[in-house]
Amino acid sequence: MLKRGVERGEVLRALGEVFRAHGYEGASLTLITEATGLGKGSLYHLFPGGKEQMASEVLAEIDGWFELHIFAPLRTADDPARAIAAMIAGVDQYFHSGDRVCLVGMVALGSARDSFAEAVDGYFARWQTALAALLRRSGLTNSQAQRRAEDALLTIQGALVLARARGDAKIFRRALSDLTARLLASPD
Known about the structure:
mainly alpha, single chain
């Protein structure tokens, strides 16, 4: 439980965990106040736009983390193998080796998707674009790079779902390991 005077980032992390555990639709004000330790008045003072603003800011914080740790390094890397290894390690870290669901993916699948469509699409589009650009620099054609980047996102998201559904984080780690080899394979 968070105490008064906490940093906004702490509040956003607590909100993110509520949204992960209950979805946007199931994240009641009661659950949110319990997780943050803030009363309704304090929450609405911090987030006058209510739950929608809370979710928007949580998604923006996630996006910021991925921009800093995943997207930007992919765009600027000179060594594709090292960049892909760093991406895989970052993804593994962020998703707690498959024990943490992808909140952006959850929002994409939920009934609130339309409210956050731009943020959700932007997150996945920038990831795919950055990875495809790296793969093109490694010698793949544009078409090959786009397909492999799309496959990477499908693999990561699907592995998160399957690992969570089966209660077996090893599924996620195996998928990441196999993904590295597929991304770095010689052009077909």
